[in-house]
């Protein structure tokens, strides 16, 4: 099998149900999801310690789900079944609640960083937010979109924030609060 097809040499790419320009909103959206997925893959290289086995396994699951989301965004005709489903969001919400209870209470904004794994997770989080914005723009311009993808990306960025904090906490690293932050998070 050859990796190159030469079919994109004139600035177009194949999607499910046709071809579009490579700068199409749809391609930008699923390409940004792929970028977030790659940063998650990089973070996994730092999470082989057994203390992170729960997070490690969840991130592998999420990488598959991100492929599902990207695939759903590549659909340009409604006759194809979508893969992203609401149970994916339910799982993220359950895990967010779990991790929020593990990490110390949060009152102010924090600076992204800490351990190498947490820092890369924060990058994946911000790229996920960009993917979310791209999907919003796509949905305004093209009705053929799985709305679950937008909800999933919104929840995923919250999940990534939660696990970045937990990774640092498990390593004994404190979050660094943004020093000019007001109290922005409600305490229990």
Main features:
single chain, 188 residues, Hypothetical Protein Ta1238, Chain: A, two-stranded antiparallel sheet, 2 strands, elongated, nucleotide-binding, EC 2.5.1.17
Secondary structure elements and pairings:
Blueprint lengths: L11 E4 L2 E4 L3 H20 L8 H21 L12 H17 L13 H26 L5 H24 L18
Antiparallel strand pairs: 1-2
Task: Note down, in words, how this protein is organized.
The structure is a single chain. The chain is mainly alpha-helical. It has a single domain, classed as Cobalamin adenosyltransferase-like (Hypothetical Protein Ta1238, Chain: A, Up-down Bundle). It is 57% helix and 4% strand. The protein has five helices and two strands, in the order ββααααα. It has a two-stranded antiparallel sheet. A hairpin with a 2-residue loop joins strand 1 and strand 2. The longest helix is centred in the last third of the chain and has 26 residues. The radius of gyration is 18 Å and the shape is elongated. The model has no long low-confidence stretch (mean pLDDT 92).
């Amino acid at each position: 099998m050859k990796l190159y097809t030469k079919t994109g040499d004139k600035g177009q790419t194949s999607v499910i149900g046709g071809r579009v320009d490579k700068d199409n909103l749809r391609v930008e959206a699923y390409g940004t999801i792929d970028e977030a997925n790659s940063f998650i893959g990089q973070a996994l290289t730092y999470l082989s310690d057994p203390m992170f086995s729960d997070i490690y396994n969840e991130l592998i699951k999420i990488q598959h789900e991100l492929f599902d989301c990207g695939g759903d965004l590549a659909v340009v005709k409604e006759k194809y079944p979508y893969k992203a489903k609401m149970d994916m969001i339910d799982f993220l919400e359950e895990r967010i609640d779990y991790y929020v209870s593990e990490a110390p209470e949060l009152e102010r904004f924090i600076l992204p960083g800490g351990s190498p794994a947490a820092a890369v997770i924060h990058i994946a989080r911000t790229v996920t937010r960009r993917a979310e914005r791209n999907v919003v723009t796509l949905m305004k311009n093209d009705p053929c979109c799985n709305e679950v993808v937008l909800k999933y990306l919104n929840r995923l960025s919250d999940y990534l924030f939660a696990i970045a904090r937990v990774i640092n906490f498990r390593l004994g690293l404190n979050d660094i609060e943004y020093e000019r932050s007001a109290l922005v998070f409600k305490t229990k």
